Amino acid sequence: MNLEQLKVGIDLDGDSGNDPKVVPEWMDHERFRRGQGFFVRHMSTALFALHVSITAGFGAQRIIEPIAFNKKSDTGPKARLRYIKTFIHAALWHLQDVWDETTLAHRSIVTVRKIHKAVREGIEAKHGGTKRFVTQYDMALVQVGFIGATITYPREFGINCTREELEDYVFCWRGLGYLLGIQDEYNICSGGYEQAYRVSKQVENEVVYRGLLAPPPDFEPLANAYMAGSNIRVRFTLFTKESLIYYASSFNGQSLPWLKCTWLDYGRVMLYKFFTSLFRWAPGFERFMNYLMMRVYEKFSCLIEKELAKFSMLSKCPN
Prior knowledge:
Elements: H1 3-6, H2 29-41, H3 43-57, H4 61-70, H5 76-95, H6 104-126, H7 136-152, H8 163-179, H9 193-213, H10 219-230, H11 241-249, H12 263-281, H13 283-312
Helix pairs in contact: 2-5, 2-8, 3-7, 3-11, 5-6, 5-10, 5-13, 6-13, 7-9, 11-12, 12-13
């Protein structure tokens, strides 16, 4: 599999129509759980990698168009709510049994597919059916967004792991991709770690980086809204799009002519590197940060209950 082969899916519905209640023949539940365990052990670093990927991903036209269309993240408060939900969904898929229909994680997967369908139908109707959106190709790009940074730059994000652990994590995401409606032909994880790594690098260089060279019109407002929603209200702004993109581009020496960092941005980058070093070399620090992430997860998981209630009319979350 390579990027050109993935592009064949640019006109195919992003939902394969498979039944999430049916477990595929290739599924190895023990290996899947080991992949989930990788995320749990490195939750804070994996979510930071996702945070960086989301920021850089705003430069990709195929990704940003549906985001701009649904207007769920065009202001700081809206972006904060939308992406907290994104992080909680991702955590759920690794913390619970997504193959068990009774779990919140399984219901989360089903609901996300319904959300994708609603966005797909809405934006395609707006374009008069002349262009396809949220296709199999787009879902593959999203899959790269979720795991690409983690599997291509584990050390840079402070993750100490073996090749076997990455293999298990990729296998886990083969299963999650299946549940999200990605056909195996367009599931970047269907061929194992080597394939997922190779495709992720191609997307990084040929989709994200090329997109960031000349960002689409919606990049600036949506990236700024995401940054506004990401920063806790303290005197020091921890995240800017400039510092996060500079941090990501430093991994392979890429440069962007428009990217102008202030001395504060460079200070932020040094802070990111300091924390990722702590993650890598001080296991106690990573465990502490994972503990904090779990507290955040527990605090905001009711948001997912409320979101699911829109589709199932069932919610245990108090008003």
